[in-house]
Write a structure and sequence with these properties.
The structure holds 2 protein chains of 2 kinds.
Chain A (H helix, E strand, L loop, with lengths): L1 H13 L1 H6 L8 H9 L18 H4 L2 H21 L5 H13 L4 H28 L8 H23 L4 H14 L6 H9 L6 H32 L13
Helix pairs in contact in A: 5-7, 7-8, 8-9, 8-11
Chain B lengths: L1 H11 L2 H24 L2 H14 L4 H7 L7 E3 L4 E3 L31 H4 L2 H4 L8 H6 L15 H7 L8 H12 L2 H4 L22 H4 L2 H9 L1 H4 L12 H14 L16 H10 L7 E3 L5 E3 L15 H9 L1 H4 L12 H12 L17 H14 L41 H10 L17 H12 L3 H4 L19 H9 L7 E2 L2 E2 L9 H4 L2 H9 L19 H14 L17 H14 L24 H4 L2 H9 L1 H4 L12 H12 L7
Antiparallel strand pairs in B: 1-2, 3-4, 5-6
Helix pairs in contact in B: 8-21, 9-21, 12-14, 14-19, 15-18, 16-18, 20-21, 23-26, 25-26, 27-31, 29-31
The chains are: A mainly alpha, B mainly alpha.
């Protein structure tokens, strides 16, 4: 049985259709494996080879991967949530109520999104601490550390912008307080606050702005910087496994 | 220990096992979603309902009408999304009236369609919710829990600014708001933007020193109800010194009214004075507390039980001669009393004293400091919100705006200890004992009964944000305020005698006496002349009757001429039926109709010897009073001629109405 399946899969891999998609061909040689990674759009960001030690849990605690996983959960729950949500003042809260009471698995979707968001912030921080205390930010990875800091800020802004969208008291006051803190910036404070809220108070314009930031601008920026981040891991010599084991 | 290690190895021994274990865990975790979906609360109620109706006689009909699944009333223009009917499935099933278990009781009959308004418009609660807890009593993510049933009339008040027959509690609450000075300090607007005006006519204090003393003012400020049980003035909880200083200031700011101050008449015979009081029907507006503590009289003017302890005799004389000379906007008519009548009446009123009232009032001599402090207090306490005071402006926005108080968010309220955290309880506590919310608060202490508190809360709960944003076609405005003002000399007379205090004309005026809008079509000139000279001829048995105003002949003629010319109905010509054309046959036919067919004698009296009807007016002289044309048209359709009359519409044929008219027109009373 198992052999029959294996034979069938091997046969499948030799078909023209398969080969037109996966051009690296079959084979267990290092070349084949390297090609399989290099020629795949999703995998080509990564090194074609990596040290087995880098896969040990203790090296990274998989914190970066877990951050990515929560990000993927957030995207995949966020898109269905967008189907039920209108970023308009009276409707936004009513949509929360619909998700809570009427939409099948609506509460599940919202909770997944919310808890994943919390988890992502936590994981990103943990990831940074791990990188920092293991010294993985040092040359040649200092630029990737900077990218990481940018990604941290994007993560925090995603959380902050998402917080307003339910349009409840908690949201309203959190954003009011947050934007007031922003206005304390010397000279530019008031202008920045006005720009962010689209007005002088948290209102319909702020809701729309936060919605666009949360669902379009910040996710796109996150994807872009995640791409650069991963690409730099490869360019900087793969995952950092410890002192003396990395390239100069 | 070994077992745990074994289990760990079994589950996470290698990466394939760990992957498998975590996958199973994830699937189980996700399975929670469909399980929870299956056990939805409302689905349980619907299946219980189906069990309930299965045992009933009309099971097939009920079953057919039942619509399962999520139900909702969606009214976008009202912002209503009510899913209450998902559980309350039998709202319209009148045959289930005997079912007592909720949520399956049908809705009691109301004048509106349930589907036109939804549920939350009236009952509050969270309409979008599909769980009992959230829908009924959520206060965290939804600030309006279900409204207790005893305030339900407030819901009607959101659209209906007019007084409805079915909402006595709401109507009473609204009257209280206007009468007890609430709207003196608080802004209160109807959804049409009209500011609710006070109806208690607080007296101006600009000439108060002419009227009363510093001692009385002090006693009054300390406890208004001690002077007059029915006083609408609340207790401001003033200390002795504060009351003294305000009294000093009020007396000091007083200016002369400019009305001629005559030497006070001396006290007359109390007995004769009482009869002047009675003949002038003072009791129609003013009340006096009798020995049993009951109020006898009307509530338009102030209570007079202890008037002698309050006013100065000079002032009383000046006031009775010309009320407008003292207070330009008073509702008090100018009676044109003779000097003798005045003498008797003043004696009678000044005799109404209460020796206890001022017995313990010993005030220090008035000083400049007192007056200065008094002025500060008068400003602080907002006295000028209701009373006109020299040199003190009416404060703006003195107290919180109550226009949308019925939607006030609980998060923004500060509750006193022991007050339940709901809006109705908050409002009731605020009205009952404002000072428990803080001693520095300015709201005075009223002495409302708990029924009155409920009425006030009901009226306040009607002031919702939703009421402000209702579509125009749902708004039932208050009856438009008429500013009708009769012209010329007659107009001045009507003003002078304050006819509008009792009579309404063209939508303006009181409802104590008949509406006079079409009086000119109704009455006979000769009768009207003699009636104005001596009003006691009509309905002598009534307690509230038209007072005698001592009009001169010229004044009477002016009034009669004006009434007969200006107050004509457009519906018919007053001279269209000539009483002289009626034959004896007509009258006989009318008599039979009166006594046999329509049995009018059940309510009316034509023959004082035999008839016993006391519900309607006596008709022995009706022919002398009313024009035949009026009688005819009134009989044809009483409610059109006199809206609100209890006279039934008998749907008379023209012939029968004519016969009755002939009979009644002949009733001219005893020949003099």
């Amino acid at each position: 049985m198992a052999k029959a399946i294996e034979a069938y899969v091997n046969e499948l891999r030799e078909t023209r259709l398969w080969r037109s998609v996966f051009r690296s061909g079959t084979g267990a040689t290092s070349l084949h494996r390297a090609l399989a990674v290099q020629q795949n759009i999703f995998l080509h960001l990564f090194s074609v080879k990596m040290r087995r030690a880098a896969l040990n849990v203790s090296v990274t605690w998989y914190l970066g991967t877990l951050s990515l996983a929560t990000f993927l959960i957030l995207v995949s729950t966020g898109i269905p949530l967008m189907l039920y949500y209108h970023p308009s003042v009276p409707q936004a809260y009513a949509d929360m109520k619909d998700l809570q009471f009427v939409v099948s698995a609506g509460v599940f979707l919202r909770n997944m999104h919310r808890w994943s968001a919390h988890a992502m912030v936590l994981l990103v921080f943990a990831h940074m601490f791990k990188v920092f205390y293991r010294g993985a930010y040092r040359t040649p990875r200092e630029f990737n550390w900077v990218i990481g800091v940018v990604l941290l800020i994007i993560t925090l802004f995603l959380s902050y912008t998402g917080y307003l969208l339910p349009w409840d008291q908690l949201a309203y006051w959190a954003i009011t307080v947050g934007s007031n803190i922003m206005s304390a910036v010397p000279l530019l404070g008031q202008k920045m606050r006005f720009l962010m809220l689209g007005g002088n108070s948290v209102n319909a314009n702020a809701l729309l702005r936060f919605y666009v930031l949360h669902c379009v601008i910040l996710p796109l920026a996150a994807i872009l910087f995640i791409g650069i981040h991963f690409w730099r891991i490869r360019k900087d010599g793969g995952l950092y496994t410890g002192e003396g084991k990395t390239h100069e | 220990m070994g077992k745990i290690r074994e289990a760990w190895h079994f589950l996470f021994g290698d990466s394939a096992r760990a992957f498998g274990t975590l996958s199973v865990a994830l699937v189980l975790l996700l399975a929670v979603v469909p399980v929870k979906h299956h056990f939805r609360e409302w689905a349980q109620y619907q299946s219980r309902y189906l069990q309930l109706i299965r045992q009933r006689g009309d099971a097939a009909t009920l079953q057919r009408r039942f619509q399962g699944g999520l139900r909702q009333t969606w009214l976008p223009e009202l912002g209503v999304v009510d899913r209450c009917t998902t559980c309350h499935v039998a709202m319209k099933e009148d045959s289930l009236a005997d079912v007592s278990t909720q949520p399956f009781r049908p809705h009691p009959p109301i004048p509106h369609s349930l589907t036109d308004f939804g549920c939350v418009m009236c009952h509050r609660g969270q309409g979008a919710a599909t769980t009992v807890e959230e829908a009924h009593s959520s206060t965290k993510a939804w600030e309006q829990p279900i409204l207790p049933a005893r305030y339900i009339e407030s819901a009607c008040g959101q659209c209906h600014q007019n007084a409805l027959v079915g909402t006595p509690q709401l109507n009473a609450g609204r009257r209280l708001l206007a009468r007890y000075g609430c709207v003196g300090c608080h802004m209160l607007r109807t959804p049409d933007g009209v500011q609710v005006a006070a109806t208690d006519e607080p007296p101006p204090l600009t000439h108060i020193a002419e009227k009363t003393t510093r001692e009385w003012t002090y006693a009054w400020l300390k406890n208004p109800q001690a002077y007059s049980v029915s006083a609408t003035m609340p207790d401001f909880k003033l200390t002795d010194a504060e009351a003294r200083d305000i009294a000093t200031f009020l007396i000091e700011q007083s200016t002369p009214s400019g009305a001629a101050t005559k030497k006070a008449s001396l006290a007359g015979e109390a007995q004769e004075g009482a009869s002047v009081y009675g003949e002038a029907f003072c009791a129609s507006c003013h009340a006096v507390q009798n020995a049993a503590g009951l109020m006898v009289g009307g509530d338009i003017g102030p209570e007079l039980t202890r008037i002698g302890s309050k006013v100065k005799p000079e002032w009383l004389d000046e006031w009775l001669r010309n009320p407008k000379g003292y207070a330009a906007h008073t509702a008090m008519p100018r009676y044109r009393f003779t000097d003798k009548q005045l003498w008797l009446l003043e004696g009678f009123l000044m005799g109404k004293t209460d020796s206890d009232l001022l017995a313990n009032v010993r005030l220090d001599a008035a000083t400049k400091e007192q007056a200065v402090h008094g002025r500060v207090l008068v400003n602080e306490r907002g006295c000028a919100s209701c009373h006109e005071i020299n040199g003190v402006n009416r404060p703006d926005n003195f107290a919180p705006d109550l226009t949308v108080v019925g939607s006030r968010s609980l998060a923004k309220l500060v509750f006193a200890p022991g007050v339940a955290h709901t809006l109705p309880d908050y409002l009731a506590a605020k009205i009952r004992q404002p000072r428990v919310f803080g001693n520095q608060l300015k709201m005075p202490q009223y002495s409302f009964s708990s029924a009155q508190v409920d009425e006030l809360v009901t009226a306040l709960l009607a002031q919702t944000e939703r009421a402000q944003t209702l579509p125009a076609e749902l708004r039932q405005p208050e009856q438009a305020v008429s500013h009708y003002q009769p012209a010329g000399k007659a107009g001045k007379l009507i003003d002078d005698m304050q006819c509008f205090s009792c009579h309404a004309i063209n939508g303006r005026g009181g409802d104590m006496a008949p509406d006079l809008t079409w009086e000119g079509s109704a009455v006979d000139r000769q009768w009207l002349l003699s009636f104005l000279k001596n009003p006691n001829t009509l309905r002598p048995a009534l307690i509230r009757r038209m007072p005698k105003f001592n009009l001169t002949d010229a004044e009477t003629a002016t009034l009669v001429e004006y009434i007969l010319t200006a107050y004509q109905t457009p519906a018919f010509d007053a001279d269209s039926i000539d009483a002289n054309k009626f034959t004896a046959e007509d009258r006989e036919q009318g008599r039979q109709l009166f006594y046999s067919r329509y049995a009018c004698q059940a309510c009316h009296i034509v023959d004082p010897q035999n008839d016993k009807g006391y519900i309607g007016p006596t008709l022995t002289q009706v022919g002398a009073r009313l024009s035949p044309a009026w009688i005819f048209h009134y009989l044809k359709n009483p409610q059109v001629m006199r809206p609100g009359t209890v006279e039934p519409n008998q749907h008379l044929s023209d012939e029968n109405a004519r016969g009755l008219t002939a009979f009644l027109a002949a009733q001219k009373g005893a020949k003099k």
